[in-house]
Amino acid sequence: MRNIYVIISVLLFSLAACQEKEIPGYSIERDGLQFDYDTNEMRVTVDFMQEYRIDTIWYSGVPGEGSYYTLRWYTGDSLLKKKIQLNLSMMGHAVDYDREFRLKAVVAEGTDEVAKTFLEFEPSYVFRAGQLKDTVEVYVLNPGARVNYTIGIVLDTENSDPSLELGAMEKNEYQVLLSNRYPQPSQWDASVVGEFSEDKYAFMVTILGKLYDQYADWSTDLATLSEALNKYNASHPGEEKDFTFPEPPAPVWWGTFEYIIGEYSMAKNQFMQEALGDDYNNFGYWDIKDPEGMNQRLRDAYDEYNAEHPDDPLPFEQFPVI
Question: What is the pLDDT of residue 10?
Answer without folding.
Answer: 42
